[in-house]
Structure formats: C-alpha cells, structure tokens
Amino acid sequence: MTIENLKADLRMESIHSGTGEVTSAGSGLSFRELVSGACTAKGFSTGTETIEPGAVLSYHKHSFCEALTLLSGAAQVKVEGRCYRLDQFDCICLPAGVAHEVTNGSQESPTMALLAYASPVPSQEPVNEVFAVQDRGLANPGNDNPETIVRFVHAEVYELSPGAEFRDLFAGRLGAVGICGGYGRFQPGASLPCHVHEFDESITIVEGHALCLVQGNRYRVSGYDTAFVPEGRPHRFLNQSNSPMAMIWVYAGSEPGRTLVEPAYCDGTLAWS
Fold it and tell me: In terms of pTM, does the model score above 0.90?
C-alpha cells in the first residue's frame, strides 16, 4: 500500500483509560473493553480480563483467533484439558473454535491478562464439554496441538531504535491468524521514529509513562491506558521520563510492519493530508 492510499483513511485516534468502565463476566471476573469496533477499529479488538483469587473464566471458544498475554498475577490456561502455567508476559495463541479456560492460580492476588481478538466485536461461546486434565506446567504445546505459546523469557529480543527493545509474542509465523503483537520496552529518552501502518493498532502501556504523538495530537498515557491508532495515521511513542516504559502492541494484521515518515508529520508541524 502506498503512502497516498494510507492518507485516505480519515478515522481518528482515541485513548482508552486503563481504569475505565468494566463489565462483569461472571463471579470474580471483569472485562474492560479497550479497542473495538465501537471506536471504529477494523479487524480486531483488545481488552483486559481481571480474574479475582479463586475465580475461573470457564470453558469457552471464539469464532476467531485469540491471543492472551499475562500482564500480572498467576494464571493457568486449560486448552481442551491441556493445562499450561503462564508467567508474566507469556502469550498463548488460541485458534478459532478451540475450547479453553483460564484460572487464577493465586488465592491472594488478582490475575490480569490482555486479550487480543481477530474481530472488532469481542464475543465468546460457552463450552460445556468435560475434558480430561493433562498438567503441562511450563512446557509448550506439541506440534500436534492447535494452540501455541511464546514464553517471554525465550522470545527473540531486537532493537527497533536505540534504547527500544522489542519481542514478538504472537504473529502469523507464530500461529496467529489476522492479528499480531508483542512487547516493547523503552529506556529513558528512547523513542520510535514517526511511522504509519497498513492496519489499525492498539497500544497498551504496561509500565511507566509515555508520550504518544499522533498527527500533531499529544497524549500522556500510563497504567494500562491504551491508544487506538487507525491505519495510516502518523504516530510515535516517546519515553521522556527517568524510568523505563513498556507497552503491549497489537496490530490487525498477521505480521508486524511499518513505514517510516518525516518526524514533522507526528508533531504536526507538517500536514499529513
């Protein structure tokens, strides 16, 4: 796609509070919708699920791919009986139609996960089937299992710009369909160049404070605040604090990709369209 075509999308960015309204998803469960079709997102949605101690997000399935990244706490994910333990920022990718259940493994602290769906409308279908449990602990799925797991500690680390290290957690080459995403950590003073994408993006701040620039608009985000940036809008994130900043980013595409543009398009001194 050319930059000229990217300029044709006139949808606006939006910021969604990490402490905004939640909906009950059952006893001890709460879901906070972040990015979805409600804010004009195309092809994907994101949200956070909080599971209180002892609570269970019972078996269900989706008609689209899901990626679940553990943000905090302890979690066990059962996939048709195969039970995996997730550590912080581990990500499990679940294909459409595969039944799964999520349990808070702690009796003291809540568990929070970031959910990314390859659909602009978050939805799920209960599954009543009973599965024999196979405890797999921190092992990864076998080649004959439909689910995939990327362990944060084993994910490849690469630098997109000085002081900004990234890890891909889910993508087409890692088993995802229609979505991809990962983790980025910025040292004080680090930033990414101004850029655009051929797909919509959701960016959730999971550590520290960030300055988000989108086509001349400036936003301060922290504490699971999430920025929605539509396809084709120039943007960048900067860490202007004295402490590290980290994010989970999600694209409505199967592989990451970006086109660098002049910094002036992000700070607004040069008109984009």
Answer: yes
